[in-house]
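quick one before i forget lol
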Amino acid sequence: MKSSRASHTHVRYKIEQITNDTEQINQILVNNAPDIIDLLTETLSLRQVARKVKRSPTYLSQVKNRKQRISWETYCLLVMLLEEGKK
């Protein structure tokens, strides 16, 4: 059976690993969201994109200009909309 100390070290390591992964994912969201919005607004207006992802055009504009962080949920909706447009 593992000692309590070894288990505690493992838990701290896993928490650190998850935190690092989350930070990397957040960077990906911040870096890719403006490009996705640009691609979507080539065929739709910003207002149409906003309506489809249930967000305000102002919010999406701020995300596009990197003045607002995007939520994971909104990012996923934008990606799904982009995928839908490829069909």
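fyi The chain has a mean pLDDT of 91.
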